[in-house]
Design goal:
Elements (H helix, E strand, L loop, with lengths): L3 E8 L3 H10 L4 E3 L6 E6 L7 H15 L3 E7 L3 E8 L2 E7 L19 H8 L5 H9 L5 H12 L10 H5 L13 E3 L5 E2 L3
Antiparallel strand pairs: 1-3, 1-4, 2-3, 2-7, 4-5, 5-6, 7-8
Helix pairs in contact: 1-2, 3-4, 4-5
């Protein structure tokens, strides 16, 4: 069985402000420390891989924090989708295999991805031609595509391969200190480092 995860990389935001925005929205989530200018969010409902919660969380974080947000979905290591949010709206989207899922009448399908727009909004100076090769290239596993994309965009290592369920169960990147995670929602709404 392959990986199943969803996460959100929030550009230029303070982890505590991210946690506060999620709490105001009534979300149950885990927030990482900032690395390389990005905070990663693992949202419990979005991790079910339903498109509507992914779009809702990405748009809300982008709007409430005035931030660029990259939402990524890996489905069984077969498909990688992303949605890039700016000003609370979808600015770019991508699906590695558009024919994999049936169309959902309630949400728009991801687009073909625009490497120049993705790089320009998320990491100016990133190599758009290299991103193009990653988006259009052949990969055995979606996590490999995601890892190369994250490297080109200089996202934290823990933006690849992790979602709410994995982190909540203690499966996480070795560089991610569990004591620095902020949990939002439910009876566990507390920074773990206090």
């Amino acid at each position: 069985m392959g990986n199943f995860y969803v996460n959100f990389s929030v550009k230029g935001a303070d982890p505590r402000k991210v946690a506060e925005a999620l709490a105001r929205a009534g979300r149950r989530a885990i927030v990482t420390p900032s690395r390389g200018g990005f905070v990663v969010v693992y949202d419990e409902e979005a991790d079910t891989q339903a498109t509507a919660p992914i779009l809702a969380v990405g748009a809300a974080l982008s709007r409430d924090l005035d931030a660029r947000v990259l939402a990524v979905l890996n489905h069984d290591d077969d498909v990688l989708d992303y949605w890039l949010f700016a000003d609370g709206e979808i600015a770019d989207s991508y699906c590695s295999d558009p024919d994999y899922f049936e169309d959902d009448e309630e949400t728009p399908p991801p687009g073909p991805g625009d490497p120049a727009r993705l790089c320009g909004l998320l990491r100016p100076g990133a190599d758009a031609a290299a991103v193009e090769k990653v988006l259009r290239g052949e990969y055995v596993f979606a996590a490999e595509r995601h890892e190369e994309l994250a490297q080109l965009l200089e996202l934290p290592d823990w933006s690849v391969g992790l979602g709410y369920k994995y982190v909540d169960e203690g499966e996480m990147d070795e560089e991610l200190d569990p004591a620095l995670l902020i949990r939002v929602g439910g009876s566990e709404a507390r920074p773990q480092d206090s």
